[in-house]
Amino acid sequence: MKTTYTLMIFSVILLKATIVLSQENRLAIIPEPNYMELKEGVFEVKHNLKMNSSVEFQEIIDTTDYVKDVLEEVFKVSITREAKSSSDIIITRDHTLAEEAYVIDIRPDRIHIKVKNTTGFFYATQTLRQILFQSRVFKGSKTIPICYIKDEPRFSYRALMLDPARHFLPFEDIKKFIRAMSFYKFNKLHLHLTDDQGWRMEIKKYPELTSVGAWRDETEGDGVKHGGFYSQSQMKELVRYAKAYHIDIIPEIDMPGHSMSVLAAYPQLACFLDDFKVRTTPGVDKNLLCAGNDKVPGFYDDIIREVTTIFPYNKIHIGGDEAPTDNWEQCLKCQQKIKREGLKDEHGLMSAFFNKMNQILKKYNRQPMLWYEENVTSYPEGSTVFLWRKGTAERVVKATGEQGLKLICAPGEYAYLDYPESAAEKRYTFDWMQTLPLHQVYDFDPGYGLSAEDQRHIIGIEGCVWGERVYNINRAFYMTYPRALALAEAGWTATMNKSWERFSCKLQSNLVFLLNEGINFRVPFELFNED
């Protein structure tokens, strides 16, 4: 019965989408291209297509197999390469385009793709994939509408975050998540690899981080031991895999708070020695790394050195949030450091801690990313910080601009994808979580309506899938989609080109596409009651 009802819903949205999109002369592409013109006529996909990959730069030639594979997969045709300008598919380089930009010019006799580099070519292919899928599935034809698309992203940083620290996610499942997010032009995967509830990556110099820190006795009283971690060879493979989809992986090593998994393995790094355990419940712990302990910087120097051999991206997230300073206030070493360095208080000590970590990162040609906290005195020069706390956007955007910090917007009221999407789903989460419906995510403007100058330091967006109640990858997908599709338009599409009505109509083909790819999602039933 449920399956039948779902199919009925898809039928309704299909009819609605067909009417609205035809009236607007649009294709159901997500994220919405920043310029698109649909014309009369079609390009007929013949049984054998010729593709000209005789372009001026070798790396494009090496990646044209992707568009070849997409066309052959979707339309069940064969494609051969040739070095002729009269080919059915022509790929050329255009130096005037932006780094991630692309042009698709579909005419009755050929498809012409123009890009500056391989990333632009990849995004052109993802757009073409959506067009092809819609033509085959919804029209039952091997034709492509005549159209002209010129497109580039609004922001350079477009991320999703997974949290395997709270609930370990198998290696192959993260690969599947990478593939899914690449369809919608996300280009960063932020992996929250360490927290109170688990340490998830092998560090060879400190084996107890995984032999002890990767395992907890139970989860919220269930009595079942939970854990797991990724080897360094697995992480290197994951980086290579993500790179093929033009996604950078950003590791997060959380400090000085959210560190019970560290202290369980190395208790001497705390302010006060104790028999620490990996935390079994959600929440914020008052046991921090000791900011006055001279062994802590060396410990993280060793960790960062190993991390940088795995992750080539030039930034490492070092956490920095939810770190209550109660123990620092009572710790003799911390108080002596405050006095010795002329710091005002424990918040100044927090800034000094971040500065020390920044010095270590600089040694390895890396820059810090941190969750922005308003009570931290200052952040290191060159930091990229994240807006995340609900209700703080106006203050944080203004303060980070004045401080010269780069800002990524991941506010809880728009981008926390672990929040329930409807009131009925609140029973599966926490009482303090607000509902975050699809239309609210779509309303998100990372520039907050500010002038170009006042939002110049905002470099992108991130959707966070925190893992306290995300037990496996199917749950992660369910919480992420289709809200990530709305977030994709916030990161890619200029505000003037966005339309909730158009987006809600475009969902139908994209949900069927996700279904076809074996990606779990929440069916947005509430959309069909809007009329």
TrEMBL record:
<feature type="domain" description="Beta-hexosaminidase bacterial type N-terminal">
    <location>
        <begin position="28"/>
        <end position="151"/>
    </location>
</feature>
<keyword id="KW-0326">Glycosidase</keyword>
<dbReference type="InterPro" id="IPR015882">
    <property type="entry name" value="HEX_bac_N"/>
</dbReference>
<dbReference type="InterPro" id="IPR025705">
    <property type="entry name" value="Beta_hexosaminidase_sua/sub"/>
</dbReference>
<dbReference type="InterPro" id="IPR017853">
    <property type="entry name" value="GH"/>
</dbReference>
<keyword id="KW-0378">Hydrolase</keyword>
<dbReference type="InterPro" id="IPR029018">
    <property type="entry name" value="Hex-like_dom2"/>
</dbReference>
<dbReference type="Pfam" id="PF00728">
    <property type="entry name" value="Glyco_hydro_20"/>
</dbReference>
<comment type="similarity">
    <text>Belongs to the glycosyl hydrolase 20 family.</text>
</comment>
<dbReference type="Pfam" id="PF02838">
    <property type="entry name" value="Glyco_hydro_20b"/>
</dbReference>
<feature type="domain" description="Glycoside hydrolase family 20 catalytic">
    <location>
        <begin position="155"/>
        <end position="494"/>
    </location>
</feature>
<protein>
    <recommendedName>
        <fullName>beta-N-acetylhexosaminidase</fullName>
        <ecNumber>3.2.1.52</ecNumber>
    </recommendedName>
</protein>
<dbReference type="InterPro" id="IPR015883">
    <property type="entry name" value="Glyco_hydro_20_cat"/>
</dbReference>
